[in-house]
């Protein structure tokens, strides 16, 4: 299986969906982010501290690429 690296630029238009147990939890569009850390912090700001495993469907509308990522959230220590 060939996987392409996750890459996007701060000027790219990103469409994101968070899914938990098959249900969409949150959808949002972003521009101005350049790292996964930026997206992670946006999620924390927008929906608080989620718990458990969430799937992130990330579509880069500018470059025409799609990614499916699993994000595990846990309580802060």
Highlighted features:
single chain; alpha+beta
Outline the fold blueprint:
Blueprint (H helix, E strand, L loop, with lengths): L13 E7 L2 E8 L5 H12 L4 E9 L4 E9 L4
Q: What is the strand tally?
A: 4
What fraction strand? Answer: 35-45%
Major sheet characteristics:
4 strands, antiparallel
Can you tell me the residue ranges where pLDDT is under 50 for at least 5 consecutive residues? none
Spatially, the strands of the biggest sheet line up as 2-1-3-4
Topology order in helix (H) and strand (E) letters: EEHEE
Count every helix, treating DSSP H or I runs of 4 or more residues as helices: 1
The CA-CA distance between the termini, in Å, is 37 Å
Overall shape: it is globular
Q: What integer is the average pLDDT?
A: 87
**Rg, alpha carbons:** 13 Å
Structure classification: alpha+beta
Q: What proportion of the residues is helical, as a percent range?
A: 10-25%
Question: If you had to describe this structure to a student in words, what would you say it looks like?
Answer:
This protein is α+β, with helices and mostly antiparallel strands and 77 residues long. It is built from 1 helix and 4 strands. It has one helix at residues 36-47, and strands at 14-20, 23-30, 52-60, 65-73. It has a 4-stranded antiparallel sheet with strand order 2-1-3-4, with no helix packed on it. It is globular. The mean pLDDT is 87.
């Amino acid at each position: 299986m060939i996987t392409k690296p996750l890459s996007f630029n701060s000027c790219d238009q990103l469409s994101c969906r968070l899914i938990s147990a098959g249900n969409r939890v949150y959808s949002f569009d972003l521009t101005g982010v350049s790292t996964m850390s930026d997206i992670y912090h946006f999620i924390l700001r927008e929906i608080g501290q989620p718990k458990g495993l969430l799937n992130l469907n990330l579509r880069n509308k500018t470059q025409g690429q799609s990614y499916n990522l699993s994000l595990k959230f846990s309580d802060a220590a």
